[in-house]
Specification:
The complex is a heterodimer. Helices cover 0% and strands 48% of the residues of chain A. By secondary structure, chain A is mainly β. Chain A has one domain: Rieske Iron-sulfur Protein (3-layer Sandwich). The radius of gyration of chain A is 13 Å and the shape is globular. By secondary structure, chain B is α/β, with parallel strands linked by helices. Chain B has eight helices and 25 strands. In chain B, strand 5 and strand 6 form a beta hairpin. In chain B, helix 1 packs parallel to helix 6. Classes of the chains: A mainly beta, B alpha/beta. Chains A and B meet through loops of A and helix 6, strand 21 and helix 7 of B.
Chain lengths: 104, 411
């Protein structure tokens, strides 16, 4: 395992169609579990500075809890206004029931 | 596809989203949008918040990129329309230019109600609706400290919050016994009032203005209960009305705005209306509504665009709005004034407090207040449940250990 892979949580810590917040150093992320697997994006909405951890996950989309901007979890793409800047995404892997994020 | 001349009066959110939507489905028609402001179409929410607090500049909240019009072959004309002939299907601008149309969309929005004191001071009161208003307020308040705000609605409260954060002295005067009108539950309105007062804003409830006098320091506002408020600037946010003056002598059916069906179609063929100005029929609530909110302007504009482009689509969006003040966020969805039962979930701003308005074992509406981000998810779930007409298990609402996602299992 390279230094870029950072352990986030046990697989069981994230419910299906849900997310958790993960902080590392001065950065913050959202780690999602959806039907297609585990994904990760920056944690702060690109529209206004609110954390997406309180947002609603439905299928492969995350909705910001403040103004309902919608992003695609897998690609970070801003799908619905007021979100217009994409979210940055990060590779995620699962090994031995642990979820890892690659922050490079 | 048949190519048409499509004109849109009003370059606010509904108009611009309609134009964008038409172009997505129709590459051939000519689309022209008329605006009476000197700016590219922009979002209004920052005007009472980030822009007033100098956190965002005026070109940082446009709806689309500067190339949007060119890229989409949409003509944007900064000219006010002064006359309309529905029989000839023609508009006349203030520069006496004629524009004919095959289809017309009216998205003229709403205008502020004005204070009528019957003195010269009427002309010295500031209002906030557009960017020019915000620029005037910012300029005037640069060196002023005492702000009086007339009206305890969302706009008045957001302005009060913003000026408090700029360390100004704020006095807000509300004529009724509750902030934010009758659609917000009294318990939530009370928490908002307490938060403002905690931050140092003074809120005068049940207060009618008897007189306002001017001296070289500023203004003396005399309330009917003999309270005196001194201010250097007076800003009023006392409601708004639909902008229909252009159509008052026409055959267009007007009643609390321009009457439309669920397809944005007005009483005149090939004439549509959307956004703040439209009193539209909502098939799910089976009545006419007129909504003034960001989400409605956007979605109604998109719906009008689809229908104008020939894709007949009912407008079924469930009402939803928000207000940001200090570090808390208030959200409202659905219809909150007709219910059999109210279920309250949460007791603190940290966890978020939501009032669910239940009718026939379904959520009819919900109102939430919490620190930033805390009520959004559950309000969003409520909107979806209203949309799908889902009967809910009240036990899940009442048990805070159960996530509301459980109510969506049958969607």
């Amino acid at each position: 395992m390279t230094d870029n892979w950072i352990e986030v949580a046990k697989v069981d810590a994230i419910e299906m169609e849900d997310l958790i917040r993960f902080d590392h150093g001065d950065k913050t992320f959202c780690i999602y579990r959806i039907q297609d697997g585990f994904y990760a994006t920056d944690g702060i909405c690109t529209h206004e500075a609110v954390h997406l951890e309180d947002g609603l996950v439905m299928d492969d989309e995350i909705e910001c809890p403040m103004h309902q901007g919608i992003f695609n979890i897998k690609t970070g793409e801003a799908i619905s206004p007021p979100a217009c800047d994409d979210l940055k995404t990060y590779p995620v892997k699962v090994e031995n029931d642990l979820v890892y994020i690659n922050i490079s | 596809m048949h190519s048409s001349k499509i004109l849109i009066i009003g370059a606010g959110q509904a108009g611009i989203y309609a134009a964008s939507e038409i172009r997505k489905h129709d590459q051939d028609s000519a689309i022209t949008i008329f605006g009476d402001e000197n700016y590219l179409p922009y979002e209004r929410p920052p005007l009472s918040k980030d822009f007033l607090m100098n956190k965002r500049k005026e070109d940082e909240f446009l709806f689309f990129s500067k190339n949007f019009f060119e890229d989409n072959k949409i003509t944007f004309i900064k000219e006010k329309i002064k006359n309309i002939d529905f029989k000839k299907q023609e508009l006349v601008s203030v520069f006496n230019k004629n524009f004919s149309y095959d289809k017309l969309l009216i998205t003229t929005g709403s205008t502020n109600r004005k204070m009528l004191l019957g003195s010269k001071i009427d002309n010295e009161i500031y209002y906030l609706r557009n960017l020019d208003d915000a620029l005037k307020i910012k300029e005037k308040t640069l060196k002023k400290n005492k702000i009086a705000i007339i009206g305890g609605g969302f706009i008045g409260l957001e302005i009060a919050s913003s000026f408090n954060q700029l360390n100004k002295e704020v006095n807000l005067i509300e004529i009724s016994n509750q902030l934010m009108g009758r659609i917000i539950p009294p318990s939530i309105a009370n928490i908002v009032k307490n938060q403002h007062e905690k931050h140092g804003n003074k809120i005068q409830m049940d207060s009618k203005i008897r007189d306002i006098q001017k001296n070289h320091h500023g203004y003396k506002i005399f309330l009917e209960n003999d309270t005196l408020i001194e201010a250097e600037i007076i800003i009023a946010g006392i409601g708004s009305k639909p902008s229909v003056s252009l159509f008052n002598y026409s055959d267009l059916e007007i009643e609390n705005g321009i009457v439309t069906d669920e397809y944005c179609q007005t009483s005149i063929e090939n004439v549509y209306a959307a956004g703040d100005v439209a009193n539209f029929y909502h098939p799910l609530f089976k009545k006419k509504l007129r909504l003034e909110s960001y989400q409605h302007a956007q979605n109604h504009g998109i719906n009008a665009g689809k229908n104008i482009a020939g894709i007949k689509t009912q407008y079924l969006s469930i009402p939803w709005m928000w207000s940001d003040q200090f570090n808390f966020n208030l959200q409202l969805t659905g219809i909150c004034d007709q219910y059999d039962d109210v279920i309250v979930r949460g007791t603190t701003l940290e966890e978020g407090i939501i009032n669910f308005f239940i009718k026939n074992n379904k959520i009819a509406g919900a109102c939430g207040l919490g620190l930033m981000g805390k009520v959004g998810r559950d309000i969003r779930i409520s909107t979806k449940l209203i949309e799908k007409n889902i009967t809910i298990d009240k036990k899940i609402l009442l048990d805070q250990n159960l996530k509301l996602n459980l109510l969506m299992k049958n969607l």
